[in-house]
Specification:
Dipeptide-binding Protein, domain 1, D-Maltodextrin-Binding Protein, domain 2, alpha+beta, SBP_5_dom, peptide transmembrane transporter activity, single chain, 19 helices, disordered N terminus, Dipeptide-binding Protein, domain 3
């Protein structure tokens, strides 16, 4: 294991050294943007992109029909579509596509590419993609045809089709968030001719069943992407991805930075050193490192107090997979926990009351931010600021654990393994804080912390094995439903993964999604927040403003243009950046 780690570090260092040679050149044709982070890249296929690590690359290689207007997350503007019309009382959308757009292969963008893209997303829809909310809009269900037999080829092909050169969507019901859903990079338009040539789905009725729910994360389009975006892939290995500006890009504003290299550098100290030397332009580091090691240093610029539209918390799996290695003995004997350990609400309440939010804000967020009462950004409509958040209360935690499992938890104790993303210092710190407080309650309580790769933690195949992980969400589209359904609906994204079902919350979510009455929606979301707090479904992390360090040779990074819907924390696309 040690040799393997050293090998990865050596390779990353070599790649960094080579990149640094270009990185120090002047801006323009020879300039290079170097980005370093701890997470790996899951995929370069937009059809299954559903994490910010992959999204920051895919959003610069592919483009959607519409995008957000500047820094405004509530308004969309044309990108690959030039205009659209709404008909049939909000249940039909007709898009006119832009002329003169080419893919990285040189193929021309046509309506057939858009039709193929959305049909492919509906066919291959899985728990590892963001296509569930597209399927909800177009098919009336978040599932794919394997899980919902009402989905047929006729239903898919009539939901999205070309009428001549016009792309037509037909919805079963009105969806006021439909346009913003199309701005999500997972709906980036793919090169259908290229996709078919390299072995992806052929787009026909004859083969669609073979591709239903298929795992395309590591498929051919992941290996050989072709989008219309300002940057195209040059090379990819386990530790670095390199891209170059696309000479055939259609946009009036051509990319000014020629090359982009994104490197996986697990060691925080190595990222900091590279940044201070000017060998990296953007790096992933926590706020504490920015203020203590970067702020005020030569060549360093920092944007702070930026809008944060993410929500995060520790999820507690109510049905942990047996034999996963995370539950020890599998019994309440002090050496493990049963698979349904977190099914008892008092266990969850004990964990929630053991997390010291004020200390976390002070130590990790340097006093910035505040406790949240709901896994919904407080900048979004529907957040009830009058509801008191959960508090750190050891006595409350003790009482909950004494009630849990009829007193067995307190009497016998437990040992549980919890996971965080390796290299994510803030997650590790939060876990350590929780561990310390829980183990202080009872000497029979034991919490072991395990660091794992991001790709391992996020995979739907591995999620059932985890007892507790950090659960975070950056919005796909600008509507509170994207968070509330995601975290709390029994058919959402996270609730099924942690086996949390609440019929009362499901009913409120359904009503909120079916009304355009803003006041009523706010009322419903407040009810959901209150019940979710009472049931302690998540340990909710406090809100904090975004902060972003960058080398001052990079131009185009600004609080005025910052858009939190863009995956990487600079809040802008690479094509809008330049380098001195």
């Amino acid at each position: 294991m040690k040799n393997k780690t050293l090998s990865a570090v050596a390779l990353a260092t070599l790649t960094l050294t080579l990149a640094a040679c270009n990185n120090k050149q002047a801006g323009g044709a020879d300039s290079t943007l170097v980005i370093q982070q701890s997470a790996d890249i899951l995929t370069l296929d937009p059809g299954t992109t559903y994490d910010t690590s992959s999204g920051q690359i895919v959003e610069n290689m592919y483009e959607t029909l519409v995008g957000y207007k500047g820094s405004d997350i509530t308004k969309v503007e044309p990108v690959l579509a030039t205009e659209w019309q709404e008909g049939q009382d909000g249940k039909e959308y007709r898009f006119t596509l832009r002329d003169g757009v080419k893919f990285h292969t040189g193929n021309d963008l046509t309506c057939a590419d858009a039709e193929y893209t959305f049909r492919r997303n509906l066919v291959t829809n899985t728990a590892d993609s963001g296509n569930w909310f597209l399927s909800e809009s177009l098919l009336g269900t978040a599932s794919n045809a394997k899980d919902d037999t009402s989905i047929t080829w006729a239903k898919i092909s009539s939901a999205v089709r070309c009428d001549g050169d016009t792309l037509v969507f037909t919805l079963p019901a009105v969806d006021p968030a439909f346009l913003t859903k199309l701005a999500y990079i997972g709906q980036g338009i793919v090169d259908s001719t290229h996709a078919k040539e390299i072995g992806e789905w052929d787009g026909t009725e004859a083969t669609w069943n073979d591709w239903v729910g298929k795992d395309i994360l590591g498929g051919e389009l992941n290996k050989q992407p072709s989008g219309t975006g300002a940057y195209k892939l040059v090379n990819r290995d386990a530790n670095a991805i390199s891209l170059t500006a696309f000479d055939g890009y259609w946009g009036e504003d051509k990319p000014q930075i020629k090359n982009v290299i994104l490197q996986k550098v697990p060691e925080e100290a190595a990222r900091v050193q590279a940044f201070l030397k000017g060998d990296a332009d953007f790096i992933e580091v926590p706020r504490a490192i920015i203020s203590t090691q970067l702020q005020g240093k030569p060549g360093v610029a920092v944007l702070d107090d930026l809008t944060n539209t993410t929500a995060a918390g520790f999820s507690m799996n109510q049905k942990i997979e047996a034999g996963s290695g995370m539950i020890g003995s599998g019994k309440l004997d002090g050496k493990g926990v049963p698979t349904d350990f977190f099914k008892d609400a008092d266990v969850r309440r004990g964990f929630v009351a053991s997390f010291d939010v004020p200390t976390y804000i002070e130590q990790v967020q340097e006093g910035k931010g505040a406790a949240r009462n709901f896994l919904l950004p407080d900048s979004f409509p529907g957040y009830d600021s009058n509801l008191e958040a959960a508090t750190f209360d050891p006595e409350l935690a003790k009482a909950a654990f004494q009630r849990a499992w009829g007193g067995q938890v307190w009497q016998n104790g437990f040992t549980i393994n919890v996971s965080y993303r390796a290299g994510a210092q803030t997650q590790q710190t939060a876990m350590e804080l929780l561990k310390k407080n829980i183990e202080a309650l009872n000497p029979k309580f034991k919490v072991n912390i395990v660091g794992k790769e991001w790709s391992e933690l996020i995979s739907s195949k591995n999620v059932p094995k985890e007892a507790m992980v950090m659960t975070a969400w950056a919005p796909d589209y600008a509507d509170p439903d994207n968070f509330v359904s995601t975290f709390y609906s029994s058919t959402g994204y996270y609730a099924p993964r942690i086996n949390a079902q609440d019929a009362q919350i499901d009913g409120w979510i359904k009503e909120a999604r079916g009304t355009t009455d803003t006041a009523r929606r706010d009322e419903l979301y407040a009810q959901i927040a209150k019940r979710a707090l009472d049931e302690a479904y998540y340990i909710i992390m406090p809100a904090q403003p975004n902060v972003f360090p960058y080398r001052d040779t990079i131009k185009g990074v600004s609080a005025d243009t910052f858009n939190p819907m863009i995956a990487f924390t600079s809040g802008t696309y690479w094509k809008n950046l330049s380098k001195e």
